Amino acid sequence: MSSYAPPVQRLVTELSKLPGIGSRTAQRLAFHILRSSSEDAVALAESIREVKEKIGFCEVCFNLTDEVRCRICQDTRRDHGLICVVEEPSDVIPMERTHEYSGVYHVLGGALSPIDGIDPEDLKIAELLARAVPVEGQPGQAPAVREVVLATNPATTGESTALHIAEELRVRAPTLTVTRLASGLPVGSDLEYADEVTLGKAFAGRRAV
Ligand SMILES: [Zn+2]
Question: S-S: 118 plus which of 26, 51, 99, 113, CB 3.0-4.6 Å?
């Protein structure tokens, strides 16, 4: 391993930090990059630099965006009274693919996991409460939120996150409808890997919590 020239070793080291990439795969990718044209290699490096420079979080829903607000939040045809709460930006894509959903999103940035030190303050939960709970005597410009759909992953951490948020909402906004996706999604799996038919059914069959 260490017999590589330092620049090659550096590339292997960086690639092996990617999820699912072991040292063998990292070496294979590094040699692929070494064999490829300069244009392709620079395009890869530039695309990584560009996403880090240009992509940030939507100020409303914390989805990824290259603007202040994401395209979904900017879309006036969408139902802004319906908020679907997901763990990661990657969970928005499968929900969009179902074509069942026309509301907006709220991306938490993870799920509660006390073992890993992930507490409510580490997620965008306060921001969700601020969006969903009407402030008395201060009618906001945004239409009132009618329903919050909790679409966290059907894993232990996702379930406890959904319960926590449901409780927080119940205390603050008793009249708000809070729902959870119907069961039927494979337990322990990520929303990301659910097919759109299953996810669409889970959405259509959502139940009050
Ligand atoms: Zn947004």
Answer: 113
Beta bridge partners of 65: 56
Q: What is the pLDDT of residues 81-100, one digit of tens each?
A: 999 999 999 999 999 998 88
Task: Give CB contacts under 8 A, 24+ apart, made by 126-131.
Answer: 127/62, 128/83, 128/85, 128/165, 129/168, 129/169, 129/172, 131/60, 131/83, 131/106
Q: Give 104 Cα–ligand 1 centroid separation in angstroms.
A: 7
CA distances from 98 to 45, 53, 141 (A): 33, 31, 29
pLDDT tens column, 155-164: 899 999 999 9
Q: What is the mean pLDDT of the chain?
A: 91
Q: How far is the CA of 191 from the centre of ligand 1 (A)?
A: 19
